[in-house]
Amino acid sequence: MPVMSIEQSGTAPRVHPSTTSGEREALEQWLDFHRATLARKCEGLDDAQLRTPSAPPSDLNLLGLVRHMAEVERGWFRHTLAGEEAPWIYATEEDQDRDIHAREGDTYEEAHATWQAEITHARALAATRGLDDLGVGKRSGGEEFNLRWIYLHMIEEYARHNGHADLLRERIDGATGD
Q1: Which DSSP helix (H) or strand (E) runs through 166?
Q2: What average pLDDT does the segment 140-146 reach?
Q3: What does pTM read for this prediction?
């Protein structure tokens, strides 16, 4: 039986992936680990702090990263894997990067709930498919993607943005750590 350790910090428990699990379990565990890492980076901050941009000229912020990852979850699991016609959550014709462009009135409570709903939906869609199953939807370039590739890409996407989140959090209150 694979052994995993659980790290508790505030409201965001994080499970360290097993070192002996099979391929699918490892992919799912690493994706969940990175999802939990982003949540931990936002923990204990108010909405104003979460909207604090990194450094000019970038307006990247933690609230925007959470909203962005809700869009990414939707894009890869709903659109590409399942072929669903779900509209984008935040992006508009006028502002394709509206997810990142957090404004006064945008709240973490809404963003977190939306992100968690997308994660729940993504898990349900993935649970019915094998790693070699191809997605039903196509990306703009027409490529096909299997679930394994989507999992790997999602891990990469979260890992990259968690690096950004590390720097954002340190800028806001000096907190560091993984």
Answers
A1: helix 147-173
A2: 90
A3: 0.92
